[in-house]
């Protein structure tokens, strides 16, 4: 594992790349040691002090495990530096507070055993969730959580760490005098000193600040004498229960029989909150690393490795660990691009694990508290304070509320509020998306039935009485009202214009892009259907998903046999065809046949009948093929009775119907006039009769009746112009 320096300028100096990497590993390793000591001192105090050294060892081991696994796996260098994280532990602070005061009434040693098991359960659960998310490619759903909620959770962990650091140094009940607040003052001063060091020289500055605090303390202690009462205030001198622990750190002998399993069971909700914080922290850190490095991350691979590391860590009672964006970016700034960097990190962590007791013996409590204050403050600053100018005020306020709730009521109520807020944000945001993709009338939406010119003219005149709404997305209670408003508006009378007072008679809902519905959406459609029935409208659901059609059928508000209410149609084509048929039936349209078409495009009845006399009559049985795709023919057909279907062949050998041709329509004129082969099959849908203009008949017209030939060409030109005009209007309405 090496660290790419893309996105940041590596530290310059006299050291080579190897030297800079080793120095960076030492500095950042020291930083991890300080964080482990600070967190262990917070968790393992009072009745849990016997596990303090072991806790430091396990926390350092957690960082070493995730680093070593990444190194052995030879992962993507952009994946960053893993480290044990304090954030998830903030969720368990109430339990550790109870154990440290022996509030559970446990036997000596049982509290520490229970604490380590609790940490192990947290790490195991975190590892399992991360592996499942990665293998199932479910990480994208975690990222669906609104940013204000995610940042609020992370900022809350920082605020809880700050509060815990202050609580560690706060005078005990009954303490009096000005000296009682000395540990608190030193804790705050150390935190500010660490902040100053970080501003001057990043993580190296923090290291220098902490070392300086320890050295100054011991010099002062030596000057005034160890017997001075000031040095025995809580939070100053390290509190180790046994001197041997400062010399020979070892994992406590965990007697599983001494573990308070009922307390573990009752703590599972807090463990769940910790897992949530860990998962969010993992993905937020990966995002930060990816953005700073200006390179794509294989987040699935990084998540699997992190999950496996946590599964191993959890078996030993370690704490959750995952990539740290701050450590990674610091390493890049220090020019840690050589493979020696992770090795230097591991060496530093290994030395600290071996000497954990000795290190703890010289680190005052206020230094641990100050570092904890610095860590928590930096997290709260990054995720709560710094986004003030970049987030909308209401989003930032949501993050602040999550932090406030966590401080006042605890992390579980904060998590519950955050999840509720995320749900509300999702509903509000999704509900504002337009549910109607496109709206139009019969002028732009037509069925595939090719009708006679007289029928097409009637449909054009009634086009405004039909409204088509193309619905998309998931229809639920947040969007159902939006659709209901559009439906009511479509069915309302026109207020002004030449069609003032006119009403939409038919409302077609094109639901093929609808992904699903909930019960509230179905109830909304039911109300609109009953309203439409009472007012004489017809709503047609076209291509609706199966869940919607089954719900409509169960509730029984579809009315396929009547002309008002709601009807379910298999697709938009059949819905439009039914609407057109109802319009034509209601207008008492004259019967369409070949002669009516000829009348539409000729100057007189005489011309129309003269042309009809030139045509041959051909009767077709149902399923008879009138035209075959690919063949050449010099015949033009006028459908006199029945219907014809235009089909193309599918790859599987079946046929797909493109259009349906009604009586009075003309077929085959394009191929004849362009001299091209037929492009589709034309098949009789039932008993049909066509009138045929043959090549011989055209030759006779050219020789014997040029006026009739001109009239025939006028008919063809009129029919083509009509088709082109309707197609143009459809495209104009679509745009």
Automatic annotation (TrEMBL):
**Entry keyword annotation includes Transmembrane helix:** yes
| UniProt-listed SMART domains | cNMP (SM00100)
Question: Can you give the residue ranges of the STAS domain?
Answer: 466-579
Report the transmembrane regions from the record: 21-45, 51-72, 111-135, 147-167, 179-197, 204-226, 263-284, 304-323, 343-375, 396-428
Q: Does the keyword Oxidoreductase apply?
A: no
| PANTHER family for this protein | SULFATE TRANSPORTER YBAR-RELATED
Residues of the Cyclic nucleotide-binding domain: 615-701
Q: Which Gene3D superfamilies match?
A: Jelly Rolls (2.60.120.10), STAS domain (3.30.750.24)
What keywords is this UniProt entry annotated with? Membrane, Transmembrane, Transmembrane helix
Q: Which organism is it from?
A: Cereibacter changlensis
Q: What is this protein called?
A: Cyclic nucleotide-binding domain-containing protein
Extract the InterPro entries matched here: cNMP-bd_CS, cNMP-bd_dom, cNMP-bd_dom_sf, Membrane-Transporter-like, RmlC-like_jellyroll, STAS_dom, STAS_dom_sf
């Amino acid at each position: 594992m090496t660290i790419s320096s893309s996105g940041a300028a590596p530290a310059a100096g006299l050291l080579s790349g190897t030297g800079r990497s080793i120095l960076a590993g030492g500095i950042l390793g020291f930083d991890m040691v300080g964080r482990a000591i600070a967190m262990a001192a917070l968790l393992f105090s009072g009745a849990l002090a016997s596990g303090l050294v072991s806790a430091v060892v396990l926390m350092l081991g957690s960082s070493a495990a995730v680093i070593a696994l990444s190194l052995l796996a030879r992962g993507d260098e952009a994946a960053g530096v893993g480290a044990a994280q304090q954030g998830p532990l903030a969720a368990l602070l109430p339990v550790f507070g109870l154990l440290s005061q022996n509030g559970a009434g446990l036997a000596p040693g049982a509290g520490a055993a229970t604490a380590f098991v609790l940490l192990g359960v947290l790490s195991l659960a975190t590892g399992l969730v991360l592996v499942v998310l990665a293998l199932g490619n479910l990480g994208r759903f975690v990222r669906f959580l609104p940013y204000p909620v995610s940042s609020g959770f992370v900022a809350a962990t920082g605020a809880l760490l700050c509060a815990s650091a202050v609580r560690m140094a706060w005078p005990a009940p009954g303490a009096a005098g000005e000296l009682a607040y000395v540990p608190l003052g030193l804790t705050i001063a150390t935190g500010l000193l660490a902040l100053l060091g970080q501003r001057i020289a990043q993580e190296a500055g923090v290291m220098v600040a902490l070392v300086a605090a320890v050295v100054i303390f011991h010099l002062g202690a030596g000057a005034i004498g160890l017997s001075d009462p000031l040095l025995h205030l809580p939070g100053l001198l390290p509190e180790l229960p046994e001197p041997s622990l400062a010399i020979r750190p070892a994992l406590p002998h965990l007697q599983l029989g001494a573990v308070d399993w009922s307390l573990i069971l009752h703590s599972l909700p807090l463990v769940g909150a910790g897992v949530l914080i860990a998962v969010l922290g993992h993905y937020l850190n990966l995002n930060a690393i990816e953005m700073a490095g200006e390179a794509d991350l294989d987040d699935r691979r990084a998540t699997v490795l992190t999950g496996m590391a946590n599964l191993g860590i959890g078996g030993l009672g370690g704490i959750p660990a995952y990539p740290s964006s701050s450590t990674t970016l610091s390493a890049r700034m220090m020019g840690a691009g050589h493979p020696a960097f992770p090795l230097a990190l591991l060496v530093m962590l290994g030395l600290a694990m071996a000497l954990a007791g000795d290190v703890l013996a010289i680190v005052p409590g206020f230094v641990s508290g100050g570092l904890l204050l610095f860590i928590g403050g930096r997290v709260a600053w990054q995720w709560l304070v710094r986004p003030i100018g970049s987030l909308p005020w209401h989003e930032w306020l949501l993050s602040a509320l999550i932090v406030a709730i966590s401080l006042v009521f605890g992390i579980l109520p904060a998590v519950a509020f955050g999840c509720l807020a995320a749900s509300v944000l999702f509903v509000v945001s999704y509900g504002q998306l337009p549910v109607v993709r496109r709206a139009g009338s019969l002028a732009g939406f037509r069925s595939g039935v090719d009708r006679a010119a007289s029928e097409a003219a009637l449909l054009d005149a009634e086009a405004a009485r039909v409204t088509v709404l193309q619905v998309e997305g998931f229809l639920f209670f947040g969007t159902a009202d939006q659709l209901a408003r559009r439906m009511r508006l479509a069915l309302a009378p026109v207020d002004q214009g030449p069609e003032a007072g006119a009403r939409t008679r038919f409302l077609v809902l094109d639901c093929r892009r609808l992904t699903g519905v909930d019960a509230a959406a179905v109830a909304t459609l039911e109300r609109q259907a009953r309203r439409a029935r009472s007012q004489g409208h017809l709503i047609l659901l076209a291509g609706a998903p199966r869940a919607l059609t089954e719900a409509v059928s169960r509730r029984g508000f579809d009315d396929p046999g009547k002309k008002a209410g709601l009807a379910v149609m298999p697709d938009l084509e059949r819905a439009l065809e039914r609407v057109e048929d109802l319009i034509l039936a209601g207008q008492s349209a004259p019967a369409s046949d070949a002669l009516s078409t000829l009348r539409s495009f000729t100057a007189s009845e005489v011309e129309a009948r003269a042309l009809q006399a030139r045509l041959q009559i051909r009767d077709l049985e149902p399923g008879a093929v009138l035209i075959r795709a690919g063949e050449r023919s010099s015949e033009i057909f006028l459908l006199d009775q029945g219907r014809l279907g235009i089909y193309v062949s599918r790859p599987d050998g079946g046929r797909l119907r493109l259009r349906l041709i009604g009586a009075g329509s003309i077929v085959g004129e394009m191929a004849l006039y362009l001299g091209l082969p037929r492009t589709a099959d034309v098949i009789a849908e039932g008993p049909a009769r066509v009138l045929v203009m043959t090549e011989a008949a055209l030759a006779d017209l050219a020789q014997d009746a040029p006026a009739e030939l001109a009239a025939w060409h006028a008919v063809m030109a009129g029919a083509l112009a009509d088709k082109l005009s309707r197609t143009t209007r459809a495209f104009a309405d679509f745009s």
